[in-house]
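agent> call fold_tool(seq_1)
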Amino acid sequence: MLYQETHRSPSRPVHAAVSSSPAVAKQQALAEALTAIGTSIRCARNSEVYGEGEPAETVYMVVSGAVRTYKLLSDGRRQIGDFHIEGEVFGLEAGAERQFTAEAIADSVVLVGKRNALVGMAANNAELAYELWVHTAGELQRAQDHLLLLGRKRAQERVATFLLDMAGRRKSDIFVDLPMSRQDIADYLGLTIETVSRTLTRLEDDAAIEIPTSRRIVLRDKRALGRLNA
C-alpha cells in the first residue's frame, strides 16, 4: 500500500466533501463517525489503497479524488467492481479478508478508520447503526445491478446506465465529469475500450450526449438514455 499519512482530518473539510455527493448525503452519522476516528492519507495516482486478501480491518471514505476496486481474473483480465468518488465510503467488508484490490484513480485523499472502532460506536448510536445497515444494503444493491448489467445488457445499454449512474452520484442533471479513463470504464462494463469509444460516439451522433472533452460528458437527452437504461 503506497500512501503518505497526514494529520487527523478536521471535520469541516471532510463534511464539505460529503455534502457534495448524493451517495453519502443521507449518511451524515457515518461520515461524522469516520471523521472522529479516522486519519487522512494521501494516495498517488494508481497507488494501492489495499490489496485483495488483506485483512479487512479498516473502512475508508474518499475526501478528494476517486478510487476503483477491482479483481484480476486468472487470464490477466481486470474486472472493476465499482468506482468511489468524493464523499463515498468504501472498504466495509462482510468477511475478514478483502475481496477486491482498491487503487486511487487520480491523486486522492482518503480517510481511514478502524472497522472495530466504527462498529463499537454503532453499538451505542442507533442512527449510526442504521446508516451502516443502509450502506451495506446499498452496496449489495449496486452489486446486483452490476451483475445484471454485465449479464444481460447490450453495449449501448451498459454505457447509458453507467452515465446516468455517475450523473446521479454527482447530483448533476447535465454534466458528468469522469475521473476514470476509457479503459477503466471498459473494465467496469465488461467491454473493450474500442467498444466503449464507439458506443459513446454513437450516442453523440444520436444527440443523446455531447463529448466536449475526454473526461466530460454532457447529457443532452436523458429520456433517450433512460430508455436504454430501462
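agent> call fold_tool(seq_2)
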Amino acid sequence: MNDVLSQLRAGKLAGAKRLDLSCGLHELPREVFDLADSLEVLNLSQNQLSSLPDDLGQLKKLRILFASDNQFTHLPAVLGECPQLSMIGFKANQIEAVDPAAFPALLRWLILTDNRIAALPASLGRCDRLQKLMLSGNRLSHLPETMTNCSRLEMIRLASNAFQALPDWLLQLPRLSWLAFAGNPCSPWREVSPARPAISWSGLEVQQQLGEGASGLIYGARMLSSNRQVAVKVFKGAVTSDGLPASEIAASLAAGQHPNLIEVHARLDGHPSGAEGLVMELIDPEFSNLAGPPSLDTCTRDVYADGLRLSVNQALSVALGVASAARHLHEHGLMHGDLYAHNVLWRTNGQCLLGDLGAAWFYDRPNALLERVEVRAWGCLLEELVALSEDVPSALHALVARCLDEVVGSRPTFRDICEELEGMKRSHH
C-alpha cells in the first residue's frame, strides 16, 4: 500500500474515486484533500489512526469511509460534517464514546462492531435514512428510545452485548427484518448449555478447503470411523457482525433436522489450535448460492447473477422450502436472524437448503412479533424471486405485500405462508 501513498503524494491519483491506504498511518495525509472533487470511497482500515482532521467535511463527495482496525477511542464528530457520507465503518477499534454530532444527515449504514461502547447518543434517532446498524461485540445494555424514529431501519446486530431485555419498541419498527441478539445476559439457558455431541478432529481426515465465510473456514473431510464424507466448519474465533462462534454452534445443534436445513452432525472437538467448529452434511456440488450478499450500493438487498430467470414453479419451490425451514426454526424457539437468498443453496429443480445460523438466537416464550419480523425478511426474498419470474400469479404478489406490511402484527405467520404456498403449488401444476 506504500506505493499508493507515494502516488498520492506525487499527485498521480488526480480524479480518483476510491482510495485504499493501509500503511501504518498515524494521521490522514493532507494530500487526500487534493481529491476532494472526486473521492467517494476512502478505506483507512488497518492503520494506527486515533483521530481525523477537523476539515474532513471538505471531502464533499465522500460517500463511504472505512476505518476498521485502528486506534480510535471515540467516533469523531467531524463525520457529521461530510455532506454525502452515507456509510461509516469503524469495526474493531477501542471506541468507548460516540460523539452526538458524529452522524451525517444521509447515514444509511453504520458499523461499530467489536468496540467498547456502553451507550449511544439520542441523536442517532435523527438518522431517518438509517437501514443497517452493526453493534455486536460492545457493552450496550439499552438503545436510545429516539430510535423509534428510525423507520427505515432493516438490519440491526446487537449480539454479544449487555442487554437484560430486548427493547419492546424495536420489534414495532415498520421495516425491521434482520435482527441478531445472541450472547446477551438475557439469552435463554439453551444457548449457554445445550446438549453438545462431539466429533474429534483426530477422527477426521481433513481435505481441501471448500469455502470461507465471515466466521470461519469450511473444509471437506472424511470420518475415519465410517468412511463418510462430511463438511467441517472451523471458526476463526473472533466476534463477527453476527456474534460469537459459541452462539452459532448452540443454535446449529438445537435446530434439529429438516429437509430444507443443512444438517449439522456434531460439534468439533480437539482442534490442534483449540478452535471451535462444526461437523456438517457435505452438500451435493449441484447446489449453488441463490444470490450474492448485499453490495455497498444495495445496502440491505442481495445481488443476483445477471440474467438469472426463474419459472414460477422454481420460485414457489424455493419460497416454500425456505418458509418451511423458518417455520421449523421458530417452532424450536429460534430466530434465524439472517434469512437471505445468499444463505440459501438451491438447484434448478427448486430444491433448496437454508444455511448459516451465525446470526441465529434463542427466545424462550412464544413471540409473535419476533416471527413476523423474520416474515418480513422472507417477504423481501419472495419479492426478489417474483422479480426474477414471469407470469406470476396475482396471489403471489398479494402475499409479498402482506409480508412487507409496515404494521408488524398484520403480517402472516410462517404456518400461514406454508399453507398458502402449498395451495398455490397444487393449483399451478
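agent> summarizing second result for user.
The first strand starts at residue 18 and ends at 20. The chain is about 20% helix and 20% strand.
agent> awaiting next instruction.
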